[in-house]
Amino acid sequence: MPTLTRLVPGPAESRDIDDPGTRDWLTGLYAPGARSFLRLNFVASVNGSVVGEDGTSGSLTSRADRTILGVLRAAADVVLVGARTVRREGYVSPKSARLAIVTRSGDLTGVTFRDASTPPLIVCPASAASRVDEQLGRTPYELVPLSGESMDPGEVRRLLEDRGLPGIVCEGGPSLAAQFVDAGMVDELCLTTSPRLRAPGLPLFPRLADTVDARLASLLADDDGFLYARWALSSRA
Is the pTM for the entire model greater than 0.90? Predict the structure, then answer.
């Protein structure tokens, strides 16, 4: 039975991943510190690629990572993700949180919403609304129009909060996540490190405008060499 061990904060504590109480234990470890928050959640190879050999994150993940993913989503009000990531990953809609998809162009070609019990939110410039409607057809969705043509991280967050969705977990892609980091709006980076080297892949952060300090809030490890870190980021907002 796979074992998950908490290394930070100490002292070390281990749990079997299949133990009925392990999810509650993880829920406590990953509990957000406030009602309003913005987290990034990624899995990456040792050298920082967020996709594996199949071109998705699925070939980098693990059972424990998927369990933690569920815990993070359950603690959030909305899962925020870029259209290209939805297209690449073949997204399954979260069970307990809304799904919000960001697109500048309104291009949702190839985007499908599997198991979508609640209509997804589509965040885009007002000028792209007609293209979104044309592409989604009869698929139910809720439009969240931006005031300008660019994706302003602060406006995206305010629009979600105005809809009663203050707890946000952003699952990519890397460019979208980097914009929130650059805006100084990210409270935490939850990063699973897969024990693989993958090149060229897709880098976790292709570029950042500045250096951001991070503090290791918690660190877990499993029997297969995966590391599960929760980094608190300093805000510059």
Answer: yes
